[in-house]
Amino acid sequence: MTTARRLVSPLLLVLATAWAAPVHADKHPDKRADKRADVAAADKLFQEGRAAAEKGDYETACVKLRESQRLDPGVGTAYNLGTCEEHLGRLGSAWARFDEVVQETKPDDERNGLAKDRADKLDPRVPKLTFTVPVGAPAGLTITRDGAALADEQRGKPVRVDPGYHNVVIEAPGHKKRTIIVALSEGDEREIDAGPGGEGEGDEADETPLAPVRKAGYIAVGAGSAVLVLGTALGVLTILKKSTVNANCPGMVCNQVGFDAVSAGRALGAGSAATFVLGTLGVGFGVGAILVGNSAAAKAERRKNDNTTTTTALLPAFGPTGASLTLLHSF
Description:
Blueprint: H1 29-54, H2 58-71, H3 75-87, H4 91-104, H5 110-122, E1 128-132, E2 142-145, E3 148-149, E4 158-160, E5 164-171, E6 177-184, E7 189-193, E8 203-205, H6 211-248, H7 256-303, E9 311-319, E10 322-330
Parallel strand pairs: 1-7, 6-8
Antiparallel strand pairs: 1-4, 2-3, 2-5, 5-6, 9-10
Helix pairs in contact: 1-2, 2-3, 3-4, 4-5, 6-7
């Protein structure tokens, strides 16, 4: 590791990289030359990644730092990459990088404490998936998430992931393949029944978690439309009362019939206005929910045959302060 990658960045709190291991002579000079080339390329990418981050271009910074770490792993690069991932909202990836620094350094190392503090503060925000395999599941059952196999020791334990959509595939000999599309927002914790599909061959796609949102949208559109019909009826009655007022209030002086019609017309008019507002809101919410649900269903269908993890999506979030829609872009 060169001196350049040991420097501290004032923006990213760059940590010192792992100490250099002694170079032992071997009988493969070509491999040693390749290694030196990798280290030089990693240093160059590291500097370019830092420069991009200092300009606020975290997309470029993450690409550079990730490749630098691949060519010549170091705790300093891992820490910087964790900071970069956090800026882009890839919380699970960021946590994993900080934890990598913790695992690669000794407890009395200052870098260990700094990375552990970052990981601990980030952890409550990181979405987590727990894959529960039922007792008696067939031997050979495999679970993959976004194309990566889940290790046996990870079963039944929370797995930290990035916010966004995740493609889970469960396969077992003699059983249909299950495909589950799960959408997670910041801080979400979800448990997935990772049991095998039904007996036989073929696919068994599970319903996307956003399907209930789409169903709620259709209900809201129906209810909103009904309220709008009611508002229209109240409006017609208001117009009829106006005719009665005109006939029974000559010169702005009303008889009892006219007076009653004025009172009733005001009530009907207020009711008509209120129902139009409620109906419009209901239809608007319903249409939005249907669009989000349809988009999720379309993405789920495409991702059955696509293991890439690049996703742009609107995710509904429900919490103690209300409901919202969040635009997420994950890789």
